[in-house]
Write a structure and sequence with these properties.
By secondary structure, this protein is α+β, with helices and mostly antiparallel strands. Helix 2 runs antiparallel to helix 3. Helix 3 links the parallel strand 2 and strand 3. The chain is built from three helices and three strands. The chain has one domain: GMP Synthetase, Chain A, domain 3. The longest helix is centred in the middle third of the chain and has 17 residues.
Length: 100
Amino acid sequence: MSDDVQSSIIEVAAPTDLTFDEPGSEIIDRSLLEETLEYVRPALQADGGDLILLGTQGGRVTLQLVGACGGCPLSTMTLTAGIERILQDRVPGVTEVVAL
């Protein structure tokens, strides 16, 4: 495989990478979180990207931006100014959003 092709490969999280709070200890309502992410998703998909919910721990939500969003230089701004703000406004308990 050439260096150009290999450098453009984006690693995507596997199902074994998912980590969620133990049942009964959740701070974040997972169904409301997933519903809100579905609200955000079309905007990312319109630009050729998407997101994967990797888990929650306490008030922290861990996401992976994929597709065009995964390598975009503006993805940090999209995450903090867009996704994090929307999740904090719509999902009680969300304190931070982290992208891997």
